Fold 3-hydroxyisobutyrate dehydrogenase-like beta-hydroxyacid dehydrogenase.
Amino acid sequence: GSATVTVLGLGMMGHALAKSFQRNGYRTVVWNRTAAKAADLIEDGATLAASVGDAVAAGRLLIVCLSDYDSVHEILDPLDGALDGRVLVNLTSGTSAQARQTAEWAARQGCVYLDGAILGVPAAIGSTDAEIIYSGPRGAFDTHEETLQKLGRATYLGEDHGLSSLHDVAILTLMWGILNAFLHSAALLGAAGVRADAFAPLATRGVRTVSEWLTGYARQIDARDYPVLDATIHTHLATMAHVVEECEAAGVSAEIPSFVKALADRAVAAGRGDEGYAALIELFRADSVTP
Ligand code: NDP
């Protein structure tokens, strides 16, 4: 028969994961605390397990996607020995410390463990618009890569189980930075009666242009050397003052631009005014943060 995959957790995301396996012809065994969420999956041929134990017994490859790591432990910890010989892929969001602790716990259960993080929304699952990053034993990833690719682009980051959560958090930081900047600039334009949908194309091109600078910045960051290629921090700082002034005049929040300006002020105070913008990373590094 066809390969079996077990999916534990049928929330917004777990449901999309199960659906994707099913669509790709896998024998899909599902379990959810609230069984009703499995209704349409059962209709399409999935098997609803009566208990977590039954779900785990159904096949070797287990995918879990719950609200948080505490929930994962709540359902799996009581399974005395049942995880022995299984491959557990945990796609629940958390911190790198939680991922590493769960890896140690899994080793005690005799279970092969991959930690993962989903970069994408449920509707993107099953397409390359969803990227899922994995960390843990390379061999386990290689063995199951073809199956995992059914959920979205699967990227392996390394043996340290904390790497996927760590990268997830980094990507979230990037995402909120971009989204907050867009919301803020839309509010500034909105105060002047400019509609966000009129601004969106210009904003999209702006984000794309800036995204093309990242590789060059990365080289400077890794070298810890920030030669100025376009504009000095001094030049940026002068423009930052205009942004704060414009926001204050429009009566919109000046919090984000004031913070941005304060960072550049600190870089200048540290003697970096004639360096390139990437030098600001020195304000964020662990060895420069004062407790
Ligand atoms: P939902 O709130 O839709 O689903 C949560 C799931 O966890 C449900 O299956 C719920 O069961 C289950 N659950 C929660 N607590 C317990 C518990 N104590 N015991 C058993 N089951 C429990 O969340 P999502 O599906 O959206 O998110 C799941 C994970 O995926 C999260 O870690 C999230 O960060 C991550 N993720 C989600 C994205 C999204 O866009 N939705 C994007 C990227 C990652 P029940 O149905 O019975 O309540």
Remarks:
- Residues 9-14, 32-34, 37, 65-67, 71, 74-75, 92-93, 118, 121-122 surround NDP (CB under 6 Å).
- The chain has a mean pLDDT of 96.
- The chain has two domains: 4-158, 167-288.
- The chain has eleven helices and eight strands.
